[in-house]
Amino acid sequence: MNQEKNSHANKVDNSGAIEKGLERFIFNSRWILTIFYVFLVLTLAILAIKFLQEFAHFSMSFWDASEAELLSGILGLVDKTLLANLLILVIFSGYENFVSIIGAAKDSDDRPSWMGEVDFAGLKLKLIGSIVALSGINLLAAFLEISTTSKEDLGWMIGIHLVFVITAVLFALSERIMIHTRK
Question: pLDDT digits over 74-129, tens only?
Fold first, then answer.
C-alpha cells in the first residue's frame, strides 16, 4: 500500500516537474523575438542611409526645383522620418511588451516618456495612425505632381488611403468599446 502511494506521489511530482519545465520553455521562447527586433534596428540603419541618400539628392537639386518638386522632396524626407519613428515605436514597445523591460533605459534621463506606457492596444492604434499619416503624405505628394500622376493611380491611392482611415477609426472605436466594457 505504501509502495502504491509512493508510486502515485512520484507520478504527480514528475508531471508537475514536466509541466513546470514546459512552461519555463514556453516562457523563455519569447527571447526568439529578439531576432526580429535586432533586424528591425538594422532596418532602421538602412532607412537612415536611404534618408541621407534622399537628402543628398534633394539638397543638390532644390535650386532648380519647382515649388511642387521642392514640397515633394520635403514630404519624402518627412515620410522617412515618420517611418523611422514608427520603427522605434514598434521596436521599443514590442520588445518591452513581449520580451523584457529595457533595463539600459530604465534610469536614463533620455528615456522617452511613452516608453513602457504603450500596451499592445496602444501600439496597434499608433501603428495604424502612422500608416494613415504615411499614406496621407504620399497622397499629398501625388497631388503636388498631379500632372505626372495617372488618374487611375490617383484613384487607387485615394481609395487605399480611405481604407486606412476607416480601419483606423474602427480600431479606435473598438478599443474605446473594449475599455468602456471593462469599466
Answer: 999 999 999 999 999 899 988 988 899 888 887 888 888 777 777 777 888 888 88
C-alpha cell at 146: 498631379
Q: Is residue 11 scored above 90 in pLDDT?
A: no
Grid cell 487611375 is found at 152
As a whole number of angstroms, the distance between CA 121 and CA 129 comes to: 12
Written as nine digits, the cell of 133 is 499619416
**Would you state the cell numbers that stand for residue 34, as one nine-digit string?**
529578439
Q: How far is 112 from 89, CA to CA, in rounded Å? A: 10
Look up the domain containing 131 and give its range.
Answer: 2-182
Residue with the three cell numbers 499592445? 120
pTM: 0.75
55: Cβ–Cβ under 8 A, 6 or more apart, which residues? 77
> What is the rounded CA–CA span in Å between residue 86 and residue 88?
5
Which position has the grid cell 500500500?
Answer: 1
